[in-house]
Protein: Phosphonate ABC transporter ATP-binding protein
Organism: Halovulum dunhuangense
Amino acid sequence: MLQLDALSKTYKTGDAALKNVSLRVPKGQIVGLIGPSGAGKSTLIRCINRLVEPSSGKVLLGDVDLAALGARQLRQQRRRIGMIFQEYALVERLTVMENVLSGRLGYVPFWRSWLRRFPPDDIRNAFRLLDRVGLLEHADKRADALSGGQRQRVGIARALAQEPELLLVDEPTASLDPKTSRQIMRLLTEICEERGLPAIVNIHDVPLAQQFMQRIVGLRAGQVVFDGPPEQLTENVLTTIYGAEDWNAMRRGDEEQAEAEADAARRLEAIAR
């Protein structure tokens, strides 16, 4: 279980990105973080694995307070946390398989990683993961030869190669088209359910969050202003999270996107005839 107690982050400029955020994420639960730009969503995720240093508060993964660890202990504990990035964070010149195996770097001696000589069990597991995310036939392709959706699948497989106890996912669909976004979200939720993995997903697409997340946490100005199931995201709640002007603009954008998708489907149907 992940537990955040009064987690805060204030930058040197005096800007408070997070203000006493307290959350508990039990095993197997998938939490969607929503909120306007600057609400603190990415900061929250990065404070958990200390890519950003919290100013105060606790980050408990099981019985270990990640916020209190020294550098060496933190490196060991980070192996327990899989991170999936918006921009994939792949090594473009390496193959898909090599990128997935990089998820094992925290477990193998330096000489093995330098020579890319990973244990046979790690290699077999990497093949299984590539099969699970639908990329087995692309194992030997360079990462820069893949589509955006395929790159995100490699990122998912790499995170799972760590055998994590928690997944942190930062804007996994921001660079993807609507159909691919749904496929990626479906894959993530299925994998978390299969493995009993808790996950926190920073997601900007509210309808997508409502469709796939078990629980929604709404942030505004660094504070939790909503925490509940997707069906409780009423118009009033969304206005509280985003503000009236921002929410209305977002809703218009969703409607226009849905109409564009429907129009594209009608055109394809007409061509098929």
Observations:
- The mean pLDDT is 86.
